[in-house]
Amino acid sequence: MKSRLDEALELSEEILRNIELGEVRLQTAIQKTLRLARLINDMEAVDWIREELKGFSRKENSLTNEAWEACKRSNRVYYDKEKEKELAFTQSVSVLEELIAALKERMKVSYDPNVSVSSQSQYLPPLPQGNGPERRGIAQNIATYTEQIEKVKSSFYDYVFNINYELRFSNITEDIFTRKRLQVDEKLSDISPEAVRKFVSVHENLRSSNAEDWANAVHSCRRILKDIADELYPPKEEPVLIGDRPIKVGEDQVINRLIQYVDSKSSSSRYEELVGSHLKYLGERLDSVYGAANKGTHAEVSKEEAERYIIFTYLLIGDILSL
Questions:
Q1: What span, in angstroms and rounded, lies between the C-alpha atoms of 178 and 297?
Q2: Rounded distance between C-alpha atoms, residue 217 and residue 206, angstroms
Q3: Which of 116, 112, 45 is closest to 74 using CA atoms?
């Protein structure tokens, strides 16, 4: 089965093609855009498009605030110089399309009839008035309604185009991360099956709406790093000398042990420096959350922050296991 985002990407491509090639009426493209907004859970856009489709809501003789905002989003607002204020055209797209079609039919029959006048006639009859003024009026109305439709069309095209771009970009990043995840999962399951199980627990905590569960997910990241450090660089009682400086690599010095593992396996000093600095940063952040929990307090961890720590942990593990 297609995911909602896959369906949204396919639908956005279809809508763009419909608009660019004029394959369907704009009203139909707008109805499809409503489906697109629902697929990506963009409820603000849903409200906007519903105003377009059902007619703009009014209270007494003016538009509601929601309807006015929808008009602005649809490029329907213009400045009236005579009234010296902003107004909005509110005819629905379907009405505008029907008006243009009817005017074009009127244009076809508003031609001037052929008139035959004999040059030998002593009294010339008055020539009938032509339909030029009527045709000019029809052409002006067609131009006005067409301009209005184009303004609305541009707003919907821009919205769908941006959604299409975002979905394409998310697919690219998702594909990259999926490949990385598969590589890490394969190596991680060989080194530490327990770490894999903890990542499953992390995922479950992230699905919660409870902030404490998000903090627990961060704690699990710290425990996962310790599991990996225990396998790759078991704790030692004696410090390791780096130059003249002793570095502790005991049970609790998880980050130090991982850095020493990277140092022992990598032939690139630049790689060691980057991974080491990332490990130190992540370790400090995880320790701050862990330390707060040990003191009986709850560190404030947003869901977004927890997700960032988890992704960072995953990518760092991938870098370490790639050595």
A1: 36
A2: 7
A3: 45
The token pair that represents 264 in the structure block:
């022992």
pTM, two decimal places: 0.55
- Both tokens of 295, joined, read 């003191």
Which string of b and e fits 171-190 if b means at least 16 CB within 10 Å?
A: eeeeeeeeeebeebeeebee
Query: DSSP alpha helices (H): ranges in the chain?
Result: 4-21, 26-39, 43-54, 65-73, 93-109, 132-191, 193-206, 211-232, 254-265, 269-294, 303-321
d(CA 19, CA 27): 11
pLDDT of 186-214, one tens digit each?
787 888 888 878 888 888 888 888 888 88
One-letter amino acid identity for 42? Answer: D
Location of structure tokens 């660089």: 233
Angle at 310 between CA 195 and CA 295, to 5 degrees: 85
